[in-house]
Amino acid sequence: MFAPWRIVFWLPAVAAAGLLVWAIRRLPETLTAERQRPFTLASLRAASRAVVTNRSTVCFTLAMTFLFGLMTSYLASSELILEEVYDLRAWFPLFFGCIAVLLASSSLNNARLVGRLGITKLIRRTSFVVIGTTGLLLVVSMTNGGHPPFWGFCITVALVVPIAQGMIPNCNTAAMMPVPHVAGTAAAIIGTVTTAGGSLLGSVVSSQFDGTVRPFAIGAMVYVSTAAALILIGATRGLGDDPTALAHVSLLAE
């Protein structure tokens, strides 16, 4: 209404440039000199090897990738579903906004739960919960030829998406915990894999849209089940939970 559509790319670019300038001018180095790693190819290879050979880090990174795949599937498919399946295009902003409120609530509640339960217990329990809610979404989505009642679809999506989104910062925290000595390299690898992989997974689901909600529900079930299995494999070893410390780490991860 007031600017070309390309402004959605211009504004983040300007904001990123401003943040870069601010960080360079205002943020001092916080890592002590004796703990800083040299910026060399050999050091980078050693740090990368430490990340990709740690079972827990790899499992949680891949789990995050599949959970992010569910999120991108939702982002790419939700408007198509409301418009093509339910002929409710005008309702999409309200639907999307309500889910966004639930996502924010899930993030805030997640920090409290980490502090209370510890990351290992919380992440295991949430894995079973998200499988159950996604299974319910799948059952609902298979009714009426893939055209379930609108409110039934809305309620099940409102259960699945916020819970899955709330698991992502926990997986990120759990992936980082075994490799604190190469945290910068670990964060770079984890961020690249999860973002690129999750985007590709989301495109797979959205490309299968057939005029029903079934492709989204089936994709969600596959991705959530895979993520839960990876989480249970990665969390078999104790992660050294410190509820107070983990609450701060989880907040930072979010």
Percent of residues in β-strands: under 5%
Question: Main β-sheet: number of strands, strand sense, barrel status?
Answer: none
> What is the fold named in CATH at topology level?
Growth Hormone, Chain: A
CATH superfamily: MFS general substrate transporter like domains
- Portion of residues within helices: over 70%
- The domain tally reads 1
| Structural category | mainly alpha
Shape: globular
- In N-to-C order, the SSE pattern is HHHHHHHHH
Low-confidence region ranges? 242-254
Cα-to-Cα separation, first versus last residue:
32 Å
CATH class: Mainly Alpha
Q: What is the tally of helical segments?
A: 9
- Return the average pLDDT rounded to an integer: 88
Q: How many extended strands?
A: 0
CATH structural architecture: Up-down Bundle
Radius of gyration: 20 Å
Description:
The protein is mainly α. The chain has a single domain, classed as MFS general substrate transporter like domains (Growth Hormone, Chain: A). The protein is built from nine helices and no strands. The longest helix is centred in the N-terminal third of the chain and has 31 residues. It is globular and about 65 Å long. The two termini are 32 Å apart. The C terminus is likely disordered.
